[in-house]
Design brief:
Elements (H helix, E strand, L loop, with lengths): L2 E5 L3 H12 L3 E5 L3 H8 L10 H10 L3 E4 L2 H6 L3 E4 L14 H14 L5 E5 L8 H13 L7 E5 L9 H6 L4 E5 L2 H10 L7 E4 L1 H31 L4 H8 L21 H15 L4 H25 L6 E5 L14 H11 L3 E5 L4 H8 L4 E2 L3 H6 L3 E4 L15 E4 L11 E4 L4
Parallel strand pairs: 1-2, 1-4, 2-3, 4-5, 5-6, 7-8, 9-10, 9-12, 10-11, 12-13, 13-14
Antiparallel strand pairs: 6-7
Helix pairs in contact: 1-3, 5-6, 9-11, 9-12, 12-13
The chain binds nicotinamide-adenine-dinucleotide.
């Protein structure tokens, strides 16, 4: 059993604080946001994730998990800290590493006097960050020497919101970018209860694995969308095509979901950061750029399809079904539903929105610019056209017969609409 600190208790940090506890470790979770710490102490997750509340309760009951608003205490009681703070886009698209640097500095200060400590970067960061920015900040603040008083590691995360706990316990692989032998053996021991291939590599290799994985998944989606635009013109159902294409074992069936495109807290920002990394290193990353362009176009195309049926959108009542970036999460960061709502508002439409769990988070972005509707059937019945932006299962239960539907996601029932247009399928 190891004693671990988790720094940053968002989607990734909280899942790890709970997950590490449930596989037998002792964990102290710290977040700079006191309200988050308070709520977690009471056993209430501040994010929605299936099964999380129950898992948090179990973890707290084990007596091995606690939450603190003192990083000093968290570091004092642990042998390693997992930094899981945000790495959003900076205005130029590169990864904003200010939260990572602040966390590394704070951990460095709190580490003073320790014989050895391990600083693990869980956040998605550009290759070179763990051994550069992070190790430098920790060394400066702690007065300890890298490789002697402390070690660093990159341990990128691949969980998916919506199935985050399952992904924690049953990942496809665990990637350990270890700065030295001690870091590698410590992390291998931490992950011993998890049955998955464990790959030990250099920190910068591990950091690149994370970007390459996300960029590749994003480009599979964009590829499906581009094929979808063509298939629609050919009156072909793109999903039937990819069902057959995906049976080729060299290709695989996953992430060919044509539709409004990808959003969320990872793909768009990681794609931008990856493209920026290429620019910084003098490599033009054509494929990544194209994937981004296709993704943005899908939103534009949804607006074009609405205009095709309604004409000028000024004053028209349009519904957006779904604000979460995908089902089973309340995360609305860069969600296509929210982005589309913004575009429609900018064109003067009266926009009605619905989401079963993400409305509170969406309000922080959309404010009073849209009308929030609790009953999705009311939204369908009281608008002139509807765009399905998130494939929540309950949208399969609605009656669409009297409206126009732009299928931004695959909800089969919506085909019964007066006019139905799949955005990237016939
Ligand atoms: N969300 C995902 O599905 C996912 C999956 C894989 C990787 N990642 C990566 O993991 C990282 C975290 O993502 P997230 O979605 O969990 O972010 P998040 O925004 O949900 O959580 C970040 C948390 O860190 C806290 N924080 C910020 N600065 C801090 C500091 N100095 N000290 C302590 N806490 C601090 C914030 O208050 C917040 O609670 C990002 O780099 C992201 O790219 C995310």
């Amino acid at each position: 059993m190891a004693s671990l600190a988790v720094v940053g208790l968002g989607y990734v940090g909280l899942i790890h604080a709970v997950g590490f506890t449930l596989i037998g470790h002792r964990v102290v979770g710290y977040d700079i946001n006191r309200a988050v710490v308070e709520s977690l102490r009471r056993g209430r997750p501040h994010i929605y994730e299936p099964g999380l509340e129950e898992a948090l309760r179990k973890a707290l009951e084990s007596g091995r998990l606690k939450f603190t608003d003192s990083l000093e205490d968290a570091v004092a009681e642990s042998e390693a800290a997992f930094i899981a703070v945000g790495t959003p886009s900076a205005p130029d698209g590169s990864a904003d590493l200010s939260q990572v640097e602040a966390a590394a500095r704070a951990v460095g200060r709190a580490m003073r006097g320790k014989k050895w400590y391990l600083v693990v970067v869980k956040s998605t960061v550009p290759p070179g960050t763990t051994e550069g920015l992070v190790a430098g900040a920790v060394a400066e603040e702690s007065d300890a020497e890298l490789g002697v008083g402390f070690s660093v590691a990159s341990n990128p995360e691949f969980l998916r919101e919506g199935t985050a706990l399952e992904d924690f316990f049953k990942p496809d692989r665990v990637v350990i970018g270890a700065g030295d032998e001690k870091a590698a053996s410590f992390l291998l021991e931490v992950y011993r209860p998890i049955e998955a291939p464990k790959i030990v590599m250099k920190p910068r290799e591990a950091e690149l694995v994370k970007y390459v994985s996300n960029v590749f998944l994003a480009l599979k989606i964009s590829f499906a969308n581009e094929v979808g635009l063509l298939a629609k013109k050919l009156s072909v159902d793109t999903y039937r095509v990819f069902e057959a294409v995906g049976l080729d074992r060299r290709i695989g069936p996953h992430y060919f979901g044509a539709g409004l495109g990808f959003g969320g807290s990872c793909f768009p920002k990681d794609l931008r950061a990856y493209i920026k990394l290429g620019e910084r290193l003098g490599v033009d990353l054509h494929i990544a750029k194209a994937s981004y362009v296709v993704n943005e176009y899908m939103l534009q195309y949804a607006v074009e399809l609405l205009e095709k049926h309604l004409g000028d959108l000024r004053g028209r009542r349009i519904g957006v079904l779904g604000l979460a970036f995908k089902p089973n999460t309340d995360d609305v960061r860069e969600s296509r539903g929210v982005e589309l709502a913004k575009m429609l508002v900018a064109r003067g439409a009266v926009v009605y929105v619905h989401d079963p769990v993400a409305v509170e988070k969406a309000k922080a972005v959309l404010g009073n610019a849209v009308v929030y509707v609790e009953d999705p059937q009311f939204l369908v019945d009281n608008t002139e056209a509807v765009v399905i932006a998130t494939a929540w299962p309950q949208y399969e239960e609605l009656n669409y017969t009297n409206t126009i539907v732009i299928g931004g996601r695959r909800v089969k029932k919506a085909r019964e609409a007066k006019i139905y247009e799949g955005i990237a399928w016939a």
